[in-house]
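Protein Entry — a single chain follows
Fields — amino acid sequence, structure tokens
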Amino acid sequence: MAAAPLVVIAAGSDSDMPHLETLKKELGKFKIDADIRICSAHKQPGRLESLIAEYSKSARPVMLVGCAGGTDALSGTASYLSTFPVVSCPPDGMNNTCLTNPPGSSNAFIVKPANVAKFAAQMFARHSKDIATALEASIAEKITKLEQADAKLTGKSDAGTPHAAGTPSSAADAKPLVVIAAGSDSDMPHLETLKKELAKFKIDAEIRICSAHKQPARLEALIAEFGKSERPVMMVGCAGGTDALSGTASYLANFPVVSCPPDGMNNTCLTNPPGSSNAFIVKPANVAKFAAQLFSRSSKEVSAALVANIAEKIAKLEGADEQLTKKRRIESGCGAAQGA
């Protein structure tokens, strides 16, 4: 029997408990287990590192939600070191420090707790039939309500929009796939950069052009197509201006959607309504690492590339510090010799 997915809700202070409890309640609607942990990146950095190592060893599929106000060092630190995905949902809402971490800190940002819960459900839907069923019911319920509201206004009723069939479980040997979806081929350099960064983690990527504004029905068909895939899937929405693409895709999809717009710090990726559960990551390199963390438990090849990437970056930092220390020793030795 597959291990039940787990969301770790990590906060820098227990003063944010109402926010943490709201997250746990929203996750419960999708039948997702959640642990609340208190661990400050600023006050307890060593303990935070131990916590990340603890959950990285877990046999369960894991996602961590970083809930830190002010400067969100918690999500940045956790996402740099972890082998599982990290999503920021700060108690102070629109906190752009969640988006300005350096390359390697791959946390995604979602403002609303309800959307964090749906994103987690989309992430775990292929791991758990209970979660997949709850996700499908949530999507269908919301769309039915819209159709009923329209029917009430027009006095017309119809059979309604057919909703997607059940979410397939991922085949044990299925290779993960990232769908890079863009509203225009004018953004091709950005899309190719994403594909190149994903390849560093041995992740297959497919570029598709489909505008939410100009081709809404085609976008819906595209989401349905990948929703039937037995491969683990993540979509990256790459639309400038008003990012309707990510919002529409994440409302309907049974897989996670991450926004990485070609115009960078685009806050429309964060202001979609409840149900549009897209996460936001600015840097293509961090999108790729997030995807690797998402897929690391379903692909040994992706996992090995991720572990090597983390180790390489930390080794470079340690090497740089060692060179500086060595230089100081040499300079100190020269100074002592000159004074003798």
User: Anything to note?
Assistant: The mean pLDDT is 92. The chain has two domains: 6-124, 170-295.
